């Protein structure tokens, strides 16, 4: 059966997060799963997490959490930066060379404890000063050293440390791609807060529900990142060891318990869902290696991998982040602005993605594409910050000219342009969804009609498939339509019509009095387990605080 296990098999995976506990907020449902069984997984922590807590406490909690996921100590990396409280006014990200940020513990360079060394000391025998450039170079070297096949990294939610890592990673990845010709990892960016720690509390259902997005108040954009659309998210099924409704048998819950200083188990109803969601950032952008010239403005902004930036990332849910210009903006007197893209080698152009300037509501509205094969095409861009054009393949193209025919406002421009070759479908898999919830082995249904759909990931995008592209069988009998009504326990199997090897299979259970009673009893047991666990952890934290060990 082709599924996520095949996708991750034999891959080297790098997970980069800000704090000790964010590994569970970002990828907890995958860490505790079978999907990573035949992979080499490395987890990287940007900060020591010791603004409020002892560094040793955060270290031990991280090691204990990852040990439950069979990740060895030598695969856990600490960069050694300080975390910063959102109520403060300064941050490493807002500190540039030659200036140095000083933490609340009066530290000004990377550090660790107990005779252990942070990444830079282990690598080069030096501590790094606290500033933005050091962190970007640190991340660049880390990525080059480990050369992962897949990178998971947090995106731009409300915590300043999360914002810092997300933005610095993009700058670092842009440098990596410029330096290494053949290194193109798959990058998944996801959130630690709005889809997890601060997400919708929806665990108490007979079926585990899909992840929802709980928008944070002080953010200008619906999905925090200005270019994200909900339907473009990539969805991975939560591992079956994290699917168990009984908390005693849920591996992710047991991992959450290890982060006692954060009382992370309080958030289990938000963190545990039927899927883990991410947005994929393309590294095979042909523009990153192309020569770009423009009629006016700064062409370097168009192919640096950075789509937006902020001058002030502080104050979390009390103030909006302050965006700054990282876009190509043609001069206001430029009557026919254009971008000329010359490729190093003849290439096939399939998809062009446009990232509009985030600094204002001004947008480029209409463009003309001129190809060296003599073809000219005109397009109106979506009235939003991100537009994707799927073109008829243009083969053996040496150059492409993008002419701006209509724009609104003086700040209309592009922060990045992605030109992508045809999608490779080597990593394709599908998952069965019922009422938009991922199904793992079994799903309980009542006698009502339920919406059936099939999710497909094709190596770049996730999508709900048109029903004409797959066939669905219940107990080997083919069914028609996208609704089902269950009258008895059954087995459902779905296959792609053009590739029957790509399939998914689940057990469907009819809800009856017995499993209703069992669910209610399990719910009561879960409540008792949680109350006991929380009480014990609170007592332990108080004792450790008294003894000065927290």
Q: What is the CATH topology descriptor of the largest domain?
A: Rossmann fold
Number of helical segments with 4 or more residues: 10
Kindly estimate the percentage of residues that lie in beta strands according to DSSP. Answer: 25-35%
Shape: globular
Q: Whole-Å distance between the termini?
A: 47 Å
Explain what the structure shows:
About 20% of the residues lie in helices and about 30% in strands. It has ten helices and 25 strands. It has helices at about 5-10, 20-30, 55-65, 120-125, 130-145, 160-180, 195, 250-260, 270, 515-545, and strands at about 10-15, 40-45, 75-80, 150-155, 185-190, 235, 275-280, 290-295, 310, 320-325, 340-355, 365-370, 375-380, 385-405, 415-420, 430-435, 435-440, 440-445, 450-455, 460-465, 470-475, 475-480, 485, 490-495, 505-510. The strands form five sheets. The protein has a seven-stranded mixed sheet with strand order 3-2-1-4-5-7-6. Strands 8, 11, 12, 13, 14 and 15 form a six-stranded antiparallel sheet that branches. A hairpin with a 6-residue loop joins β24 and β25. α5 (about 130-145) crosses α6. The two termini are about 45 Å apart. The model has no long low-confidence stretch (mean pLDDT about 95).
Question: Which SSEs are present, and which pair or pack?
Answer:
Layout: H1 4-8, E1 12-17, H2 22-31, E2 40-47, H3 55-67, E3 76-81, H4 119-124, H5 132-146, E4 150-154, H6 160-179, E5 186-190, H7 193-197, E6 234-237, H8 251-258, H9 268-271, E7 275-281, E8 291-294, E9 309-312, E10 322-324, E11 338-356, E12 364-371, E13 376-380, E14 386-407, E15 414-420, E16 429-434, E17 437-438, E18 442-445, E19 450-457, E20 462-464, E21 470-474, E22 477-479, E23 483-484, E24 490-496, E25 503-510, H10 513-546
Parallel strand pairs: 1-2, 1-4, 2-3, 4-5, 18-25
Antiparallel strand pairs: 5-7, 6-7, 8-11, 9-10, 11-14, 11-15, 12-13, 12-14, 16-17, 16-19, 19-20, 19-23, 21-22, 21-24, 24-25
Helix pairs in contact: 3-8, 5-6
